[in-house]
Amino acid sequence: MDDAGPSNFHSLRPPAKRMPFYVRFLASTALVLVVGTFVATATDFVRRHRPGIAPEAYLLPQAQQILLPGLGIASLVGSCAAVASYRHRRNAARG
Question: Phi and psi at residue 3, in whole multiples of 5°?
Answer without folding.
Answer: -70, -20
